[in-house]
Specification:
Elements: E1 2-8, E2 12-19, E3 26-29, E4 35-40, H1 45-54, H2 56-67, E5 72-73, H3 80-101, E6 108-111, E7 118-120, E8 126-129, H4 137-149, H5 158-167, H6 171-181, E9 182-183, E10 190-193
Parallel strand pairs: 2-4, 5-9, 6-8
Antiparallel strand pairs: 1-2, 3-4, 6-10, 7-8
Helix pairs in contact: 3-4, 4-6
């Protein structure tokens, strides 16, 4: 896969990515306003840039929409001592919730992730994002219970949301709040809890 960062007049730097899975040229605008142009192997970078100029007004218009969301960027440079204390506290809260609601999980890992607040593997290992450090107790609680629920239900079916709502009131609203209020910036740090 080929990627390149190219400056386009009136748009700034855009990421161009060639993908063997892409069937056509497409443009993605992320919550923070970053733009990625993906193009298939059968297309050239020159064609992708030409397509970008053709869609320039659309990009500008939709970038403005994403900027109006008022997202708060999260600083990846969290004080390591405070981060460690935070991770220990969150781990204890996860243990307490798991015991209270009868969930079984494998390992718990803390990472700084760029696109998700948490995840649960098929073997019930849970990953939690270090950026939870910045969100309120209520939203942290939502992420913990969301990932614990995935130890029993591996999808986002109506049944999943019903079961989550039973242990975490207003779960869909909390999901909306955490996903629309903060901009996750990537940096890779991890710590394991067994």
């Amino acid at each position: 896969m080929y990627t390149e960062n190219i400056k386009i007049d009136g748009l700034g730097h855009l990421l161009y990515r060639q993908s063997k899975r892409a069937k056509k040229i497409s443009i993605s605008i992320y919550k923070n306003g970053d733009v990625c142009v993906t193009f298939p192997n059968k297309s050239t970078l020159k064609e992708a840039i030409k397509f970008t100029y053709f869609k320039k007004k659309w990009i500008q218009k939709n970038r403005l929409k994403s900027n109006k969301l008022g997202l708060k960027p999260l600083d990846p440079n969290i004080n390591p001592d405070l981060l460690k204390l935070f991770q220990v506290a969150i781990f204890k809260r996860l243990q307490k919730s798991a015991q209270k609601y009868n969930f079984n999980y494998g390992r718990v890992v803390f990472k700084t992730m760029s696109s998700r607040w948490g995840s649960c593997s098929t073997s019930n290992n849970i990953s939690l994002n270090n950026f939870l450090y910045y969100v309120g107790y209520d939203l942290q609680d939502y992420v913990i219970k969301h990932e614990l629920m995935h130890t029993k239900i591996k999808n986002h079916s109506a049944f999943f949301w019903k079961e989550l709502e039973a242990i975490c009131e207003n779960s869909k609203r909390k999901r909306f709040l955490i996903n629309s209020s903060f901009l996750i910036r990537p940096k890779n740090k991890s710590i394991n809890f067994d």
